[in-house]
Design a protein that fits this description.
Helix content of chain A is 50%, strand content 16%. Chain A has helices at residues 5-9, 34-49, 64-72, 78-82, 101-110, 134-149, 183-187, 191-200, 232-276, 284-299, 307-316, 319-326, 332-350, 355-364; strands spanning 12-21, 54-58, 88-92, 111-117, 123-130, 156-157, 161-162, 174-181, 203-207, 219-224. The longest helix of chain A is centred in the last third of the chain and has 45 residues, at 232-276.
């Protein structure tokens, strides 16, 4: 890893490891009765009671408002919510009490474990961590996985490996995803070529919101396509290597961007900063675009601030989290106004740009 | 006048009075020899020596750079510069010494007298004052006019009045112009109708840069079209009345704009403020548009600051003044960068917008 840690952090936003598992003695969730579904919830909860302090939530007891909050925070999947008549989730218990919305969200985005039950498969064990750390996630999930496996046998084929509801997950049931912030590669029109190259190596590139979504905010999710006929360690090694290469390429392109960008690049970044810190209403699409400029400004050292704070802001300004923060249901227009107000206040605090920093920007020109 | 003085000031930017005069014994400048032209310069200078402390500048001794600075500051006309082989100008002497560029410019835009010699006519006496004050300007020019008239006779016809090179000025030779900031009337699409109405009353509406120019920055110059067959006092009374009406109308429209504008209006004003206080390059056209938003914000009490400072900034950021300020010749791109830098620094100082003001903006919503 040639790039320094801080620059590295400015590219890799988060890492997610997911294991898909099914019990041999039950049909897949799509043909699962309510009673059996409850049994599975019971088995998994009991198995994990020994591992860590989890709290169980049945999805049919959660208001849709809150489900959307969890989805936006990557804590649960959309499919878990769709399956809510039989599904549940185990969240790691966190200190409750007087934590603010921001603190709680930041904690969840720093490190999080959730075990989804009766989603597409009986069990989806998921680990989420800020930055790039495949090993840590895999080890954390292994403990959980083994504890569950000790209770009743997983559906497993000697040749194929773990059996799953969807053939793309058969084998290891492992998906390793890394969210990367690639503004320079995107602006220099490199993403089509990179996506094709990664596809040949068995990796998929998706937008921030998963399958089929565009890459808003210059965020790209890289994950393994193949789970069949490969070992966990092979999959992790491929993802590790390709993500490292991509981070290197992004950093090289950022240097080029900064070298060639001149006043136009500074102008674009500072205008986005000026708009975000001042506007009175802004929709999510424009917000993501402008925040990407500001993040690039932070990455290039033009603006003060911590990348992790900006990535937290990216989640807190999504519709459901925004309404949670506002403490009320908001129309789309109301969301745009609240987003502008909250993000403006936050960015004015986080990304200070004093007169001296401004002078330096121009001096470097 | 129902509107309070402060609101009034936020509409009327400046007043200009001009008297066109010719000497009976000389041909009009377009057919004037160099020797005669010099004689006229001598006569006018001598006549005004008694009135006030003027300093004489022959236009052919002024670098074009400086001539453009004077034109942008409304001190001389483009035609005076075109006629530079025979033309000259008398400026009121000002305290020299350690005054800054900003202070000097602000003084000139606060009140200024200049007497142009051998422009289209032998003499163009001009008075410029911030705000709306026709009477003050007319009285000031009358003293100058009488002093010159005492030396040698003006070209005058008993029926027609003063004779001038262009028939549109024959009669009183008086042009009274008022520059108005009309963002609300302009945005609510009222200017076409108003221009037609004023035309029927013998008044002309022009853009900021005079004849044929567009109304950039929502600035409109109202002046009398007719000088023939009317008395000075009649002309001044018409302009006075129509400008008063227009100011009233603008204030009514501003109230409507603010009432109906909601978050979209606040958003537009704050975005322009955010861009102007942060951008790294901006061309004159966009600058005028955004400064108009900021001025409207000040007028509506959303932003702090003095309108007169913003009107001074509007002149200091024009190409020639900008280069004078920079102390060097700049390419167009260089001007855009320097304009952004200077205007940003100035606006961050002049139009403060603290957290409390921001909260109040949203609270009023």
């Amino acid at each position: 890893m040639k790039a320094s840690a801080i620059r590295y952090e400015n590219v890799a936003v988060s890492t997610r490891i997911r294991l898909a598992r099914n019990f041999a003695d039950y049909p897949f969730p799509r043909r699962l009765g309510k009673a059996s579904a409850r049994e599975i919830v019971g088995i998994v909860s009991a198995a994990l009671r020994e591992v860590d302090a989890f709290e169980l939530h049945y999805m049919d007891s959660i208001p849709s408002r809150l489900a959307r909050v969890y989805i936006e925070r990557y804590q649960i999947s959309r499919d878990l919510w769709k399956n809510r008549d039989i599904s549940a989730v185990l969240f790691l218990k966190r200190d409750g009490g007087s934590r603010t919305f921001e603190k709680e969200l930041s904690d969840i985005l720093t490190e999080n474990v959730s075990v989804m039950i009766n989603e597409e498969d009986h069990i989806r064990e998921q680990y989420f961590v800020r930055g790039f750390d495949l090993k840590r996630g895999y080890e954390r999930l292994s403990g959980i996985d083994e504890s569950i496996a000790e209770t009743i046998p997983f559906a497993c084929d000697e040749e194929l490996g773990y059996l799953t509801a969807c053939p793309t997950n058969v084998g290891t049931g492992l998906r390793a995803s890394v969210m990367l912030f690639l503004p320079a590669l995107a602006r220099r029109d490199r993403m089509r070529e990179i996506t094709a190259k990664l596809k040949r190596k068995g990796l998929t590139v998706r937008g921030m919101f998963g399958e089929g979504s565009g890459a808003e905010g210059d965020l790209y999710q890289i994950s393994n396509e193949i789970t069949l006929g490969a070992r966990d360690t092979d999959i992790l090694a491929i993802v590790e290597r390709e993500v490292n290469d991509l981070v290197e390429e992004e950093i090289v392109e950022r240097d080029m961007l900064q070298e060639e960008g001149g006043a136009a690049l500074i102008d674009r970044i500072l205008r986005s900063y000026g708009i975000l810190t001042n506007c009175a209403q802004i929709d999510e699409h424009e917000f993501l675009e402008r925040l990407s400029d500001v993040k690039l400004g932070v990455a290039l050292g033009m603006l003060g601030g911590e990348m992790s704070d900006l990535d937290t802001l990216l989640v807190s300004t999504r519709p459901a989290n925004l309404m949670e923060l506002a403490g009320e249901t908001l129309t789309e227009e109301g969301q745009d106004i609240f987003r502008a107000r909250y993000a403006g206040r936050t960015l004015r605090r986080l990304c200070m740009l004093d007169e001296e920093m401004r002078e330096n920007l121009f001096a470097e020109e």
